[in-house]
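Section: protein folds

Sequence with per-residue tokens
===
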Amino acid sequence: MAAPPPAGQQPTPQQMAQMQQQLAMEAARQGLTIPQLQAKQRAQLEAEAKKEGLTFPQYIEKLRAAARENHQKAQEKAALQAQQQAQQGQGQGQPQVQVQGQQGQQVPITPGAPDPKAQALAKWLRGQDLKTRTCILNGQRKDMFRVKRALRAIESEAYTKACAKNPLLPPVTPQTPKAEIFKILPLSLLALRVSKSDPHAGHGHAPPTKPQKRVKGLWTVKIEQQQDIFDDLHYVWLYEGPQWRMKLYAVGALILIMTVVMFPLWPVTLRIGVWYLSMGFLGLIGLFFAMAIFRLILFCVTVFTVPPGLWLYPNLFEDVGFFDSFRPVWGWQEEKKKKGKKSKKVGKEGEEKGGKAIEATSPATEIANGSGGDVSKRHAHAAPRVEEVEDE
């Protein structure tokens, strides 16, 4: 049976025809006529009303009220789901852009193919010196720049000359200022505003007890929903430009893989040469391990016989270049001194030396005034020493 119409509404002719059709189909399925099916359903409803202690009209009104309530709940649920989907789409894929000078006007970003003008602008700005710095966005390294440097580049003479050569670049005019031109980058998702964030936010674990080692100046950033355009804000490049180099690398890797896979088809002489070459590499690796073991044994022997110990290739496992790892050939073990005690000792010694130097120069000047020129020449270099101690 079709659901009853909402409260206060009469069924339309289409709904009436649909209900009659459903009633006829149900009667045919049970092998009854329509009046017989109606009588059977009425008898069932009267029996259910009698069980609940209600009259037949009261029971029918109760069923209608329950149907209206279910229909209203279904409509509210559908509206709530549609609202949530719209909010998610606006929050994730459609951040708002607020342009400076537009009195807070917000323009929604619609994902899609980027504007050719925005691509031309991004390509030109990527070739300029915006003093970009590397940041971490969603676990990937990206280039970050300040808005003011991009705006300076847009209002420069170089941009004016580039606009004359490339018609896709939008020129700076009183109707389209530099901020309005920069706005097309976030609108095309080629550059978005970011801010510094905590890399451990949202992980659900306690903050680290020990300070972690981080690269100086390397920010972990997040994309801001409000894409404002002001001088001191930071934007991150999402435009990578033509990836011809990556394509060449991919083609080279594919050729290399196919070459290795087709190894059985190589000529015999070439396969023998590759075998000798691989044996040579294995020999070099074995020689490296033998040298590492030998230098460790040499250090263990010399640390007792000739302390503090001798290292062969002391920079072998240091974070240096390949050639710097083998320079110098040998070196003594460096003793680690406590910086705190050393700084205190140096401070005390400096104070003592400073006091002695000041006391020693005063009689020297007196002798120099009363004696010959040789004494004055001999103590002529004492005055700068006194000044250096006072400066410290």
Summary: The chain is about 55% helix and 10% strand. Residues 96-199+216-241 form one domain. Confidence is low (pLDDT under 50) at residues 89-94, 97-103, 354-392. Strands lie at 96-98, 106-108, 133-137, 140-146, 191-196, 219-223, 226-228, 234-237, 310-312, 330-332.
